Amino acid sequence: MDNDMNATSNNGIFLRGFGNLHDFKIPFFFLFFAIYMLTLTSNLLIIILVSTHYHLQSPMFFFLAHLSFSDLLVTTNILPNMLLITLTDGGMVFLSGCLTQFFFYGLSATTECLLLSAMSYDRYLAICKPLHYHTVMDSKLCSSLVISSWSLSFILTIIPIYFLQRLRFCGINVIDHFFCDLGPLLELSCSDTSFVKLEVFAMSTLLTMVPFVFICVTYVYIILSILRISTNTGRQKAFSTCSSHLAVVCAFYGALFAMYVAPSKGDSAINKGVSLLYTVVTPLFNPIIYSLRNQDIRTTIRKYLRTQKPHI
Question: Where does the chain cross the membrane (predicted)?
Fold first, then answer.
């Protein structure tokens, strides 16, 4: 048994990637590469703009910058290796590398849930308690919410990694996926994985459903407050301040819930397609939403791009 486990640890795990799409690997490679470059550029641009422009250094944009960093984390954690295995019809990764990839994947997902909750609370205060907004949502609270989000996510993500690295891995060391997701990884183990599955399910449910319920409750209050505004112009202006966040929440939780309902075994094509939504599409979608729907971001981007043009 130990020899089998050592073989998996030393020889690595083979990720099949998109081997069934061999004839289209070149177009897929360039498609994923273009998405990767756009995701890096758009999220880095958001971070740079928020960091360097004083009028964007409000609580909402402060949270947005950390959301973009979380998107960069999941993108750089998965896409470079995915590009490689797409081009080579699969690739090897050491068990330690597999666990590291799963750790950063979980860290990003958990942090994003908590940051979206913090952003919903910010929007609740801005619309429902405008007179108390600047008193309550000060820089100290913003920093505390962000630090708590990253710290809690780190602690709660490292726990399943601890139990995963204690499992014995043996047998066929092949994962029919493009990254080291939990389900396919547990299938390689010859240990009893019921405790790990229960622990991860309970923790992931807690960390996704509690923030989701909190966001829903805040938006109930937000919508009720907006409906009490007497003029259509006032209602539209109030709703526009939270429409970008609401669109990001729908995109993120839509992809997350799709991963929950996807079959854990059986059709790997469905699992890969659903995983692409969260790991590839959502990190690109978030900055685009804020760029298109937020006037401050659009104006700042135009000014920033004009200043970067070479003077002749």
Answer: 26-49, 61-82, 102-121, 141-163, 201-227, 239-262, 274-292
